[in-house]
C-alpha cells in the first residue's frame, strides 16, 4: 500500500492533528496529586492549551516554558513544548528531523509511563496516556510509510483504551479516542477493508459518533477536542450541516484566531441556505486577510475566493460564482492545490447547471489534472460520467476536504 492509499484509508492529516491535541490535553491526568494541585500549573496548562487551539504558538510555548519553574517532575514543560514545535508545521508535512525530535521526546516519556504502569497496572490514567502515546507513534509511522508499524501501534492504542475503561467505566475522556477509532475504521473503503481487518478490530460508525458525542458532553480533558472532531465529521463525511452548525458557532466564538473555523462556518451556513450569514463570515475572512489578523496568511486568498464562489453558486448567482472560481484558479496555490481542484470541479458543476456540458467536461478534466488528492477529484470523476444536477439546500450536500 502506498502513501496515498494510507492517507485515504485513515485521513492521516486529520487524525494526526487530533491525536496530537488529544495526547497534549490528556497529560494532566498523569501529574501526581501533590504536583497537580498547584494552581499555577493548572493555570499555565489551561492558558497554553487554549493558546494552542487558537494557533497562538508563541504564547502557548511561553506558557509551557514557564511550567519548568513550578513543576518538580520536570516532565510537563518538555512534553508540552514538543507538541508546540510539531504543531507549528500546520498544513505542511513535518520534516524527518522534526518527526525524529518528536519521537525522541515521546520515547522518553512513554518509557517512564510504562515503567510506572508495570508497578501499577490498574492505573487508568497511565493506561489512557500510554494508549495515546502509541496513537501518536502510529501517526508518525504512517506519515513515514511504515504501515505495519502504524497498524500495530493503532492496535495497541485500542487495547490500552479498552483496559482503561474496564478499570474506570466512567472515564468519559476515553470515548474520544475510541470514537475516533470506531468512526475512522468504519469509513475504510471496501478495497482496503480486508487488509485492515487482518490486524485491527472493525470500527462502527454509530458507536464512533456516540463515543465522540459522549466525550463532547461529559469529557474533562477532551470535551473541546471532541467538539472539533464532531464538527469536522458532521461538516465532512456525514454532511449533516444542521448538527455541525452549533459546533461551528460555539468554537468560532471561543477560538476567533483559528481561520479554519471561519471557513467551516461560512460553508455550513451556505449549505443550509443561509447565504446572508455565509457572506457575512466571508466578509470577516476578507477583512482578516487584508489586515493580516487572526493568523490569516496571504496564501489563504485562493481558499477565500473558492469559498465565495461556492456561496454564490449555492445562491444561484452562477456568473458571479464562475468569476470567483476563475480568480481562484489564477492565484498561485502551492499550499492549497486542493482548492484549485475544487474551483475547477465546481466550475464544471455550474456549467452543467447552465446546460454547458462541453465546458463542464473540460472543467472536470482540468480538476483531475491538478496534482493533489481529495474529494474534489472524486466528485469531478463522478460528474464526468453524468451531468451535475442541483440538489435542494437540505444540509446534506458534499462538503469535501474542507471547503
Features of this protein?
disordered C terminus; Serine Threonine Protein Phosphatase 5, Tetratricopeptide repeat; 403 residues; single chain; 21 helices; mainly alpha
> Low-confidence segments, ≥5 residues, pLDDT <50?
1-36, 394-403
Question: Describe the biggest sheet?
Answer: none
Shape: globular
Distance between the termini: 28 Å
Task: Return the domain count.
Answer: 2
Strand content range:
under 5%
Query: What is the third-level CATH name, the topology of the largest domain?
Result: Serine Threonine Protein Phosphatase 5, Tetratricopeptide repeat
CATH class of the largest domain: Mainly Alpha
Strand and helix order = HHHHHHHHHHHHHHHHHHHHH
Radius of gyration equals 22 Å
DSSP E strands, number? 0
Give the helix level as a range of percent.
over 70%
CATH architecture of the largest domain: Alpha Horseshoe
Tally of helical runs: 21
The computed structural class is mainly alpha
Mean pLDDT, to the nearest integer, reads 83
